[in-house]
Request: fold
Amino acid sequence: MSGDEKDTTAGGSRQQSGGMDRLHDDLQSEYFRIVGIIEGFDQRLLTIKSWGVTFALATLGFGFQQGHYGLFLVAAAAALAFWLIEGSVKLHQMRYYPRMGDIEVISYELWRENTPSGPASSPLIDWSFFTAWPRLRGGKSKGDPRRPRPWKEINDQPGRNRWVLFYPHVALPHAIVVVLGLVLFVVGLTTGTLGPI
Reply:
């Protein structure tokens, strides 16, 4: 029997079954490893945000305390830097989402079970997050929460994620500190009421 022919003996079935079992276990292991990586990124993002807010707000306060409006520009520049770093880290984190979706689709296609209320498969963490908003708030459905759809090979809306810096959970509070620092700097520069530079 050539290597291209299918082995239909009992041993061949066991080998195929063992291969599917290994694939299932490997995919589950990879999936939950990716979840761990994403959680690690969340911790980094919180650290970036907390350092950025602490430094920028402390610098704003120090500018008032010392009466030097130049510190407001330092606070704005620092907030902008932390904002850009957070946006970059968020984009790196988002690169793992398509693979999570791929594993969810493969698991659905190969190992779903029919239940009285419809098909069931696991894992569906990413897909359930994607479909949850209309289920919670109402509005147009994003798809059947039990049947994951595959990610497209190529994003047909290029540039959509260029706006990651303006996602509220990325931009805030950095954007507020940038604007506030710049406004206070301009006020100090033009009026001289906030002390020397």
Confidence is low (pLDDT under 50) at residues 1-12. Residues 135 and 141 are 7 Å apart (CA to CA). The longest helix spans residues 10-66.
